[in-house]
Amino acid sequence: MSIFEYNGSALVAMVGKNCFAIASDRRLGVQLQTIATDFQRISKIHDRVFLGLSGLATDAQTLYQRLVFRHKLYQLREERDMKPETFANLVSALLYEKRFGPYFCQPVIAGLGDEDKPFICTMDSIGAKELAKDFVVAGTASEFLYGACESMFKEDMEPEELFETVSQALLSSVDRDCLSGWGGHVYVVTPTEVKERILKGRMD
User: N or C, fewer C-beta in 10 Å, the chain?
Assistant: First the structure.
């Protein structure tokens, strides 16, 4: 068993027309034993940048705290929020720093950049970035998410259609992966608002 599969997770970020959605499952488990059903995998860095962390839960929490610390230092020094591209570079550099004893995490970064252009990216545990123009996935359910997103994704979706698409992709994927599930947590972010919704899925 890979250490990345110890806690199980499902994460997906998808772009729409001047908006993006980021979604995750809510199960925290130790292999097949469920510990919690309301685990928060997605964190808001600021109103236009969100971070999802899949992989080992303890490492994800440590990494998140270090990233928040670095972002607050940036805000103090620069007197502005980080752009999503800059934040992705920060995450990548922080992971690469620890490459000989890495955080067992696979981050997903989603944000709105200049002119409200959506930006999504994921990386491996040592910070090698993978940029995409449609969707990115991470976690133990990623191979199922790839198939679901590939068949459902359309370009330039409006926020409501994007929410529906990402939700259906997430729920159908976690049903096929026994290490993730227990509903979902979805954020849809537009230039003017952030909508957060909880999905109810199969509770087994």
Answer: N
Residue 57 CA to residue 105 CA, distance in Å, equals 8
Q: Among 199, 43, 184, 180, which Cα is nearest to 110's? A: 43
Q: Look at residue 103 in the predicted model and tell me its pLDDT.
A: 94
Domain ranges, ordered by start, for the chain? 3-198
- Nearest Cα residue to 163 out of 198, 192, 130: 198
Q: How far is CA 105 from CA 108, 112, 125, 174, 181, in A?
A: 10, 23, 5, 19, 18
Q: Is the pTM of this model over 0.70?
A: yes
Domain 3-198: assigned CATH number: 3.60.20.10
Beta bridge partners of 13: 22, 136
State how far the alpha carbon of 70 is from the alpha carbons of 65, 93, 117, 204, in Å.
Answer: 9, 12, 24, 38
Report d(CA 122, CA 143) in Å as an integer.
15
Rounded distance between C-alpha atoms, residue 21 and residue 66, angstroms: 24
What are the structure tokens assigned to 202, written together? 């199969």
Report pLDDT digits (tens) over 52-73: 999 999 999 999 999 999 999 9
